[in-house]
Amino acid sequence: MRKRRNARILPMLLVQSIAVIIIALSSFTFMTWLVTDVFGVDNTYAAAGYEALGTLIIFIIIMVPLNTILYRKRSKELSTLSDNIRKVAEGDYSVRITYRPSDPMAPIYEDFNKMCAELGSVQLLRNDFINSYSHEFRTPIASINGFASLLLDKKLTDEEQKEYLRIIADESKRLSDLASSTILLSRLSAQQIVTDAEDYDLSEQVRQCSIILSKSWMEKKIEFSGTFSRALVHASRELLQHVWINLLDNAVKYTAEGGEISVSVEEKDGIAEVVISDTGAGMDSGTLQHLFDPYYRGSSSRSSAGLGLGLAIAKRVIDLSDGTIDARSEEGTGTVFTVRLPANVNHR
Asked: Are residues 150 and 43 in the same domain?
C-alpha cells in the first residue's frame, strides 16, 4: 500500500520540481535578454544585479498564484477528508469520498472508503448479533412462560401435563445450552492464544468423538465409514473436541435415515487434515456465505434444530489453532467440511 501511494505522490513532486526549475531558468533567461539586449547595460555587476532582482520578481509573480492554487487544492482535499472523518466519528459509516483515479489522494480516499465499508459491516453484524441474541433468548422464555401458565390455570389431563412439562424441560435445556455456548463464544472471541496446547494424535480424538455419537447415527441407520491415519498436532485437546463433536453432530442431524457419513484424518505435507462429509440435504450459496456467523441457521430445513452457535465456535477455535475450516455443499447432495491444522512433525 505504501508503494502504491508513493507511486502517485513521487511523480507529482517530480513534476512540481521540474516546473520550478523551468520557471527559474526561464525568468533568468528573460531577464538576461532584457538587461543586455533591450536596455543595453554594459556594467557586469549592474547587469548581474538587475538580472537577479528581475528574476526574483518574475519568479515571485509566477509562483505566488501557482502556490495559491495548489494550496487551495490541497486544502480542499484535506477538508474533504477531515469532514468525512468527522462523520465517521459521529457514527455515520455510509460516507464515501468520490475521486478520480489520477488524483494523488486517490489511494488515501480508497483506503478511507474501504475502512467505512468494513466499519459498516461490523456495525451491521453487531446489530444482527444483538437482534438474534435477544430473539434466541426470548423464544424459549416465552415458551416456558406460556406452558407454565397453562399448567397453573387449566385443568389438564395427565398426558397434557406431561407434554407441557416436557416442552418446558426442553426449552429450559435449550436456554441453558444457549447461555453456555454464548459464554464460550465470548470467551473465545476475547482469547488471542491457546494456553493449554499439548501434543497428541488428532486421529484418535476424532475416532473417539465418532464413537461418542455412534448411538445417534446408528438409530438413523446411517452408514458410517472412517479412515484414521496418524496425525500429530500441538493444540488444545479440549477446544478441538468442540469442533469434532459439532461437525459430526451436524452431519448426523442433517443426514436422512439410511444416508452416509464418512470421516478421514490424515497428514499431508505437514498439514493435519480432517474431512467430514455427509449425504444430507446440503445448503444453498446464501447459507454457505453466512455459515460461520453467530446465531445463523440458514434455511428452514436447518433452523428447526440447533442454536446457530456451534459453527461460529468451531471457526474461532480453528482460527486460534492457526488452522482453516471451509465447507462445500449443494442442495440435495450433502456437505463436506474440511479442517486443516499444522501438523507437529517435530514430535514423532
From this structure: no
Query: DSSP for 174-204?
Result: HHHHHHHHHHHHHHHHH--S-SSEEEEEHHH
Quick: pLDDT tens for 234-279.
Answer: 999 989 999 999 999 999 988 999 999 999 999 988 999 999 999 9
Question: What residue type is 197 in one-letter code?
Answer: A
Statement to judge: residues 88 and 211 lie in one domain:
no
> Are residues 170 and 226 located together in one domain of the fold?
no
Asked whether residue 202 falls in the same domain as residue 185, the answer is: no
Tell me the residue type at 335: T
8 A C-beta contact, residue 248 and residue 262: no
* CA nearest to 293, candidates 140, 180, 91, 127: 127
Q: Provide the terminal-to-terminal Cα distance of the chain, rounded to the nearest Å.
A: 42
Strand-pairing partners, residue 342, are 271
Domain limits for position 144: 126-190
Q: How many domains does the chain have?
A: 3
User: In this structure, what C-alpha cell is assigned to residue 129?
Assistant: 448479533
Same domain, 212 and 184: no
Query: Minimal CA–CA distance to 54: which of 28, 33, 36?
Result: 28
Chain segment 68-104, per-residue pLDDT in tens = 777 787 788 788 888 888 888 888 878 888 888 777 7
Strand order in the sheet with 324-330: 223-228, 260-268, 271-278, 334-342, 324-330
Phi, psi of 269 (to 5 degrees): 55, 45
Say if residue 295 is in the same domain as residue 202: yes
